[in-house]
Amino acid sequence: MKIINLSENNSILNHYLKEIRSVEIQGDPLRFRRNLERIGEIMAYEISKTLHYSTEDVKTPLGIAPVNVIDEKIVISTIMRAGLPFHQGFLSYFDRAENAFVSAYRKYKNELKFDVHIEYIASPDLNGKTLIITDPMLATGSSMELAHVALLTKGKPANLHIATIIASRQAVKYLKKNYAGSGATLWAAAIDPELNEHSYIVPGLGDAGDLAYGEKL
Question: What 3-state DSSP class applies to 157?
């Protein structure tokens, strides 16, 4: 698995990353959601550079112009609920992509231990397509793997991109091990050093779903 950490190179992405992390700024849900979208847009652009293209001739009012266009069939998938604004950023750029949705949640056994459960999935046929799975936070990596396995019931994609905003080193290590030799690529806006006892990323940003949509029971 190839790992790409976009924050290793300076760009406007780092400004939006600062805002979603900052306790002084992230309390505005509208701004928080929009910043997730913006990061999704930037990441979609970066991923677009790696896709396959073919040349088409386009008729203009004054002649014919050759233009390179994406010739891969793209499916953008997200893990609800925190992934929805991040997903929208990708969809703003890959506006003709098909879409898939997976609901994954933590079912706690006690205060610290939990299992990840898949509750819902909606997806088009994935056979031979390029699948981009978006989830803003990769804490342990297990939710992402389970979501991917669930999506594979809808077909075998030709290519896999996993996109996240903040991943822990533990999640990166987990995915590298479980996706070794797969040809998949992990895209992250930042990679943070550790998890706390509740498996939240540190320093992270808190609960992305609650910051985007309000606290849940």
Answer: coil
